[in-house]
Specification:
138 residues, mainly alpha, elongated
Amino acid sequence: MTTTHSTGSARQMWAGGLTVFGAVMLGITGLVGIFRGIMAIAEDDVFLTTANYVFEFDLTSWGWIHLILGIVAVVVSFGLYTAATWARVAGVGIAALVIIANFLSLPYYPAWSILMIAMSAVIIWALCTVRRDDTALH
C-alpha cells in the first residue's frame, strides 16, 4: 500500500538524484559546447553544412552561441551542486536554450541533437521538482 507521503518521497529522491545527474551533465554539456564553439569559430571542417535550411546562420555565429552557452552551463552546474535557487532557475533556462539550439542544429547532427533535447527535458523536470533539502550533495 503506497501512501501519498512515500510516493512524494520517492519522487523527491528521484528528483534529487536527477538534479545531481543534471549538474554533472550540464557541466559536461557545457564543456562540449565550449569545444564545439571553438571548433566552429575556428571554422574547422568538422561541421557539415546542409543547403536550404530555414534557420541558416553563419558557422561562426553558431560557434559563439555554443561557446557562450557552454561557459554559462559550466558555471550553473557548479551552483547546482549546492541546490542554490539561482542555479536551479538558471539551469532550467540554460536547458531550455540547449533544447532550442539543438532543435536548430537538427540537420547538422540529428542523433546528437535529439539526445540533447531529451536529456535537457529530464534535467528541466528534475530542477523543477526537487526541493533544496532533498539533493544528494546538500
